[in-house]
């Protein structure tokens, strides 16, 4: 049994296809990537409730053997917001609660619908009419099945093209999204130091002191990005630059043990 979700009486969400469709004149259809769609499904299951970062990490990524940073989580939340806007929902119904998580404040209406296969099977049940009439009645369902299969192929092809276009646009604007969602907190030895705008618990003063004392130097066009791991046991010090295609290219040179004093726990990556 498939189901569809109507959000704020404005947007139709099809979870199986990861699609957001407008219900009014304004807006256009949008296809979310799989992680963003999982984030939206989790929020729709718990409207009005603050969902923690750890719940998102567990339900969206860790259950599928993946581990990501908080930056990746909030990038996918931004994709959900953008998809809602493009589908015609101008009201911001997804709010970030600093140091806590994310809350969905919109209305949710879930509707169940039978699949095409179930409908066809019902139409092929034996008919009490005579044989000649029964044969005549079975022709339209056969043509219906052929048309549905043809439409399904066209739909899958269209969805594939849309996903590829979204991924292409996403890749082209990766560096722009990074600088929109991060703050530059210091410049040390010509190295610009960035942290996630929503990561208010980062101990910037101690990190600046460590980078200054150790005389950290960047290569040309390189910058420093400080981010915590999902479990919050360690903080990574990444050195990044931007490729000609607008992608971010980062490497980890230091890691920080968050369970101890930040300055005492700082050490180069790979050393004990």
CATH class of the largest domain: Mainly Alpha
Helix content percent band: 40-55%
Strand content: 25-35%
Q: Give the total of domains.
A: 2
Largest sheet: 6 strands, mixed
Mean pLDDT level: 77
Number of helices: 8
Q: Assign the CATH topology of the largest domain.
A: Arc Repressor Mutant, subunit A
Question: What is the secondary structure topology, with strand pairs?
Answer:
Layout: E1 2-7, E2 11-14, E3 19-22, E4 30-31, H1 34-45, E5 50-52, H2 53-61, H3 70-86, E6 94-97, E7 101-104, E8 108-113, H4 116-123, H5 131-172, H6 174-181, E9 182-188, E10 191-196, H7 204-213, E11 223-228, E12 234-242, E13 248-257, H8 262-265, E14 266-268
Parallel strand pairs: 10-11
Antiparallel strand pairs: 1-2, 1-8, 2-3, 3-4, 5-7, 6-7, 9-10, 11-12, 12-13, 13-14
Helix pairs in contact: 1-2, 1-3
Summarize the structure.
The protein is of the alpha+beta class. The chain has helices spanning 34-45, 53-61, 70-86, 116-123, 131-172, 174-181, 204-213, 262-265; strands at residues 2-7, 11-14, 19-22, 30-31, 50-52, 94-97, 101-104, 108-113, 182-188, 191-196, 223-228, 234-242, 248-257, 266-268.
Describe the structure.
The longest helix has 42 residues, at 131-172. This protein has a six-stranded mixed sheet with strand order 9-10-11-12-13-14, with helices on both faces. A five-stranded antiparallel sheet has the order 4-3-2-1-8. A three-stranded antiparallel sheet has the order 5-7-6. Strand 1 and strand 2 (11-14) form a beta hairpin. The protein folds into two domains: 2-111, Orthogonal Bundle (Arc Repressor Mutant, subunit A), CATH 1.10.10; 180-268, no CATH class. By secondary structure, the chain is an alpha+beta fold. It has eight helices and 14 strands. It has helices at residues 34-45, 53-61, 70-86, 116-123, 131-172, 174-181, 204-213, 262-265; strands at residues 2-7, 11-14, 19-22, 30-31, 50-52, 94-97, 101-104, 108-113, 182-188, 191-196, 223-228, 234-242, 248-257, 266-268. It starts with a strand and ends with a strand.
């Amino acid at each position: 049994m498939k189901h569809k979700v109507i959000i704020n009486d404005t947007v139709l969400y099809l979870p199986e296809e990861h699609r957001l469709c407008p219900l009014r004149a304004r807006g256009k259809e949008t296809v979310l990537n799989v992680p963003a769609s999982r984030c939206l499904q989790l929020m729709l299951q718990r409207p009005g409730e603050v969902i923690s970062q750890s719940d998102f990490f567990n339900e969206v990524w860790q259950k599928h053997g993946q581990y990501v940073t908080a930056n990746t989580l909030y990038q996918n939340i931004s994709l959900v917001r953008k998809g809602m806007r493009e589908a015609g929902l101008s009201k911001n119904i997804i709010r970030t609660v600093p140091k806590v998580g994310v809350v969905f404040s919109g209305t949710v209406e879930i509707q169940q619908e039978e699949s095409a296969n179930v409908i066809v099977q019902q139409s092929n049940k034996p008919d009490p009419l005579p044989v000649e009439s029964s044969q005549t009645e079975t022709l339209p369902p056969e043509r219906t099945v052929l048309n549905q299969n043809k439409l399904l192929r066209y739909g899958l092809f269209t969805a594939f093209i849309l996903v590829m276009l979204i991924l292409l646009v996403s890749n082209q604007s990766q560096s722009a999204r990074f600088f929109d969602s991060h703050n530059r907190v210091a410049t040390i030895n010509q190295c610009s130091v960035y942290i996630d705008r929503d990561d208010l618990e980062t101990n910037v003063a101690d990190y600046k002191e460590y980078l200054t004392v150790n005389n950290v130097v960047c290569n040309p066009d390189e910058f420093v990005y400080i981010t915590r791991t999902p479990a919050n046991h360690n903080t990574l010090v990444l050195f990044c630059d931007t490729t000609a295609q607008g992608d971010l290219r980062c490497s980890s040179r230091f890691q920080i043990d968050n369970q101890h004093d930040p300055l005492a726990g700082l050490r180069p990556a790979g050393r004990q």
